[in-house]
Structures are given as structure tokens and as C-alpha cells.
Fold:
Amino acid sequence: MGYRVAVIGATGNVGREMLQTLHDRKFPADQIIPLASERSVGREVSYGDDEILKVQDLAKFDFKGVDIALSSPGAKVSAQHSPRAGAAGCVVIDNTSHFRMDPDVPLVVPEVNPQAIAGYKKRNIIANPNCSTIQMVVALKPLHALGTIKRVVVSTYQSVSGAGKEAMDELFNQTRAIYVNDAIKPERFTKQIAFNVIPHIDVFMDDGATKEEWKMAAETRKILDPNIAVHATCVRVPVFVGHAEAVNIEFETPVSEKQARDALQKAPGVVVVDHRANEGYVTPQEAAGEDAVYVSRIRKDPTIANGLSLWCVSDNLRKGAALNAVQIAEVLVRDYLRQ
Ligand SMILES: NC(=O)c1ccc[n+]([C@@H]2O[C@H](COP(=O)([O-])OP(=O)(O)OC[C@H]3O[C@@H](n4cnc5c(N)ncnc54)[C@H](OP(=O)(O)O)[C@@H]3O)[C@@H](O)[C@H]2O)c1
Structure:
């Protein structure tokens, strides 16, 4: 007997990756139910190479008898439907920002705080963190165990797929328009994204930070340690898939480059590629389609006491979204929902 699993937002970037990941990891599902908006009813989505599923309307769907829902239809839609699914007895793993800071909802990266999953019972909801936070905390966790991290300063280089499928089309169309000398009209992004970079992701907050930057700080504290200070600058770059981050870490006590490299090499979910030569580091183009969080350019920061810098890259649709959600579902069925 397997599980009945709904995928909410199944026509989107994250939803399609969730379907692929459930299939690839042989998740024990008896039935997969793809859900999206009324616009997509009857549309076909792939589940693995051979199976085609027809999309149903989320608004009309009854979650009774569904064991798990992997949800990514945007924050407003989740705010309405995730509690409804939870109340029907379905455990929702929610990819949107809506429930992440709710004290009754665990925010989970399985390599970092799998024990937090136990808290799902209050609302039947588990939140998946922001894509930029996930890859960073996977790399920070083994380092925090070495020397206790005091402060992190991070600059991100985030791909357009993080903003959804229409944002990917915008990069493609603008790039094409430049080659054929057509006018450029920003729609999803505030400025031209092709051949440009934009230091603005999500809305501005009162202190001048963007909400994406605030999320990286607040989520890292909820997942890893409430005492870590994080200062982030989040930047959108003209890359289709894969986020990169330049991470500067200040520890309480000295941590050598060798200790850091050894700990990262042993850490679950991390692959260290760090040769100080041409091609000796990983870029988003190589991380796209892969599961790992890649760490390169590990080096001492001699400008502060106990400082270390590194470069961290991962596929934002996989470890940053779908894979993390499916890994949570795997722990859930192994430790909590066993049939
Ligand atoms: N992309 C990432 O790297 C990433 C990472 C972590 C979290 N997330 C979060 O995941 C969510 C989705 O991201 P995405 O990149 O997959 O976006 P996307 O490509 O734009 O897809 C959005 C999905 O939501 C569905 N949807 C929209 N309005 C709906 C409604 N009223 N009822 C039911 N379904 C509705 C869409 O269905 P239709 O096709 O029917 O419109 C589509 O399946 C966002 O909240 C995002 O912040 C994204």
C-alpha cells in the first residue's frame, strides 16, 4: 500500500520538478494527483517518462483521503488552500513563503533540522524554506558545528526560474529582442534582465532590505540557530536555472580552511569542488539538473578574526524547492505516517 499524493501548482516550474523528483526517487505513491488553477483543468503533465496525468482544479478538489500534498501555487493561494487540506487530514509540505515563520509550522531542511518535522501535527503543515536559504544552510550546518557561526554576509546571484515560468520566458524573449533589435519591455522584472543584473528580489521593507534578504536572515535563524546574524544582498542574474552565493562567515572560534573543507566533504547533501585552477569550481550551469549543494572557493578571510569565505551553488528548482520537499515527505512516511 502506497500513499495518495497531491501536487499543487503542478503546471509550474516547481510543480513539474516535484512530479519528476517523486518519480525519480521512487516515492511510494499509489496515486499522484496534479492540481492547478481552473485555467489548467484537463492539461496534461508528465509523471516520469511514460505516465501522463490530467490536471484538476485545486479550488474544487476535496483533500479527504489524500495523505500528502506538495504545494507551490504562490503564497496567496496556499494561504487559502493549505489549511483546508490540513484540516481534511492531509499533511501539506508548502513551498510558498506564507507559513514559513508561523511558530506552529516547522521550517525544514532535512540535512539540517529533520527533528523539527515532528511539529507538523499542530497545523498539518510543514514549510519548505526559500531556495536561497536552503542551499546556504546546508553548507553552513557542518561549519556551525566546528566553530559556532556568529555572522554571515551573503551576496546571491539568483536565476530567473526562481521567479516562475513566466520570468524564464521574459529572459528568453528579452535576449531574443536584443539580437533582433526589438524594443525591451520589462514585465515580471522591474528592469531589463537580459544582459543585466537586478539588485531587487521581492518587495522593499522599511529598513531598506528586500523581503528576499529578510527571508534569508529570518529563515536561517529559525532553521539553524536563532543567534546567527545574517546580512544578505539578493541579486537576480540572467541565468535560467541555478542560484549562486558568495558567503562570508565569521565564527566565534578559529576554524581552519582544512577543518572547513574536511567537514564539508563529509556533510550530507554537499559536494566540494575546490581546485585553485581553471574549472576548479562549480557554476550554476553545471549545477542545473543536479541534486547537490556544491561548495567551491573555500578560503580564509584574513580581514576579520575567525573569518572564512566560500562559493555555494545549487539547482534552485531541485534542492531549492522540489527535492527538499520530497526529502521531507520521505522522512514523513518513514518516521511518522507509516501505514
Ligand atoms: N522557483 C523556485 O525556485 C522556488 C523555490 C522555492 C519556492 N518557490 C515558490 O513556489 C511557488 C511557485 O513557484 P513556481 O516557480 O513554480 O511558479 P510558476 O512557474 O509561476 O507556477 C505557479 C503554479 O501555481 C499555479 N497557480 C497559480 N494560481 C493558482 C490558483 N489560483 N489556484 C491553483 N493553482 C494556481 C499555477 O497553475 P496555472 O498554470 O493553472 O496558472 C502553476 O502551476 C511560489 O510561491 C514560489 O515562491 C519557488
